Amino acid sequence: MKPRHKRALIIIAALAVIGVAALLILNALNSNIALYVTPSEVAAGKAPQGQAFRIGGMVKEGSLKRDGLTVHFVITDLVKDIPVAYTGILPDLFKEGKGAVIQGRLNPNGEFVASEVLAKHDENYMPPEAKHALEQAQKNGSTK
Amino acid sequence: MIPEFGHYALILALCVAIIQGVLPLVGAHQGRREWLMLARPAAQTVFLLLATAFVILAWSFYINDFSVLYVAEHSNSQMPVMYRLGAVWGGHEGSLLLWVFLLSTWTILVSQLSKALDEFMVARVIGVLGLVMSGLLLFILTTSNPFERLLPAAQDGRSLNPLLQDPGLVFHPPMLYMGYVGFSVAFAFAIASLLSGRLDAAWARWSRPWTTAAWVFLTLGIALGSWWAYYELGWGGWWFWDPVENASFIPWLVGTALLHSLAVTEKRGGFKSWTVLLAITAFSLSLLGTFLVRSGVLTSVHAFATDPKRGVFILIFLVLVVGSSLVLYAIRAPKSTMGGKFSLSSRETFILSGNVFLVVSAGSVLLGTLYPLLIDALHLGKISVGPPYFNSVFVPLTAPLLVLMGIGPWTNWKNSDLLRVIKRLWLAGLIALIAGISIPLVMGEFTWLAGLGFLLAFWVISSGCLQIIRQAKVGKPTRSFIGMQLAHLGIAVFTIGVTMVGAYQEEKDVRMSTGETVSVGGYQIQLKSVNLVPGPNYQAMRGTFLLSKNGNTEATLYPEKRNYFSSTMPMTEAAIDAGLTRDIYVSLGEELSDKSWAVRVYYKPFVDWIWGGCLLMALGGVLAISDKRYRIKLKRHAA
Predict the structure, then answer these.
(1) Which of A87, A118, A121 has the most B C-beta neighbours within 10 Å, making it the best mutation to test the interface with B?
(2) pTM attached to this predicted model
(3) Is residue A13 within 8 Å of A21, Cβ to Cβ?
(4) Rounded CA separation B124/A116 (Å)
(5) Which of B356, B385, B388 sits opposite A14 (nearest CB)?
(6) Which residues on chain B are in Cβ contact (under 8 Å) with A20?
(7) What ipTM, to 2 d.p.?
């Protein structure tokens, strides 16, 4: 084989690997992305149907109820409330009146069934997604 | 007064670093010998000044000087001394000080151990490191001064985040940073050789052990971080594809590619431009990692207080470094890209293929990490890319690497007879096939992914063993050969751990009252009691669990739920009974209404092999560095 052909072959092989990777990536991105939605948007019916998504907001004071391993609480952006159910052990930093980000889907009764409650690692730290939801709600509230 | 000395030392260090960055480079360009001579003393001065600053900050922590803002925010008089010292790098400002201190440590090591190298080269390398140092010191002084005062002084500090009060804090960050920062040496060698136009095998031979050393530290740093997350964060996972983890893993992947590409450049003089490009990329990605972690654009355990000024500064610095290196690369990179001739069935081809897979998988991880930021920046909404993305992209891209790993070491440089290689490897293939089918069946359930994992792992192991036996018959194998085999073996051991945990772990969240038993992975775990116990700066609820198998008690486990006095946040301390073939992991959730507890019980088969594999890789790297050919060179020149 001539060196020129050889180089072409190597480049084609490398491009093939990149092509396969691109296919894998596009495919994976399509099915594995979770959208962030604010409680107001969920209340307005803007949440993706039949697909997992994330909600950021505050855990409403006094809303936490335990039922064995299942916990019920309300996540809010201070304008709209969304009821949430989660089965399992909550992260250390989960607290009423603090920010939280949860992933899961809506059930037919309008309750958000969480598959994951995300742990934030510092008590003085507010997840930007939760902050974003509060700011968004405030902005909309003042213009309406 | 003392903290002001620290601040003063930092300012002086910046001045000297600018001298270290500018004069030797200009001197080398214009052939002024007296300016070249400044490189070493300047580097030594910077090192002394930074060591002073570092010791002063540590001292402020030691004596609880809460008039220093950084100390007041990250320490507390009740914290044990070890964590007070670890807290030096427990926050943003201090960890950057650690960064520059380690950078100057690498600089000193290079300047001391490179006496045999020609002085123009050394001056250029030290000069480039000096420029990087100046940029980072400027960053520290303008946006993140660790010696800023808090007046009036605080009565007591706010204490360190309880999550960080763990021996992991003392080792993980310095190790990881040694690796990150270490790539700056490979980068400096690459830039220096571009500047001088002397991009030859000697350059590769010099920068190879340094790159390997950085890679060893990075490997250990990442492994330590993973292990820490596993036992301390209370989640029991070993890798979460958290953006910050990715930020350290992407440079590792590119660094691994660089190691292999350097081998070709050293032995065959090939792949020169590719190697240089990888060296630039590895260091740029380390800087990008620092930017991602420190700018607060990512939410994670490592994100400290956010300050947009900082993010912008690092971003500008990053653009400057990457931009100027790439321009230099475009002008100076050698035009002959492939170097010496080689056939398609040569070791060069195998290393090149491995490189392609490593770089492409690094790219896919980078894409998944940056994608949410990109979407957010374009105001297309807020999204998150989760572990399923990474698993489904990363696994198919890295599996071929293990196939190559079994064949590559058997091939010769330039040209080799693939048919003969295959004839020698049929046994390895057979062993791999048997392992891939039988191990999942023994474990109780066959899945294709588990089968593939064991197949690949045993392919690498048996191919490596066959080659070691063969080599031992011919003569004494070199250390770099053993190092290479050991590192590849480490990958296989790691793969076994990952496959076992992925396919056969059991995770249970249960409600338990005193006396109740739960069984997991063939073990029984009984809750004996939960008691209140005091700690140095916390109070804990400590559970007592009895671990038994077939009626024989194997261990007693004491997981804790701690309440630190300085914080309102509770802290889960898992208890682990570790073993060669399995870990049993117990952690306490919350106390439920009826006096029972939520308890998390995990059975993790072979999980310690994950970190064991990393340790083997690092050990392999150390052996490769200690190879005779690097030492002989040193001795000859020293004499």
Answers:
(1) A121
(2) 0.92
(3) no
(4) 52
(5) B356
(6) 396
(7) 0.84
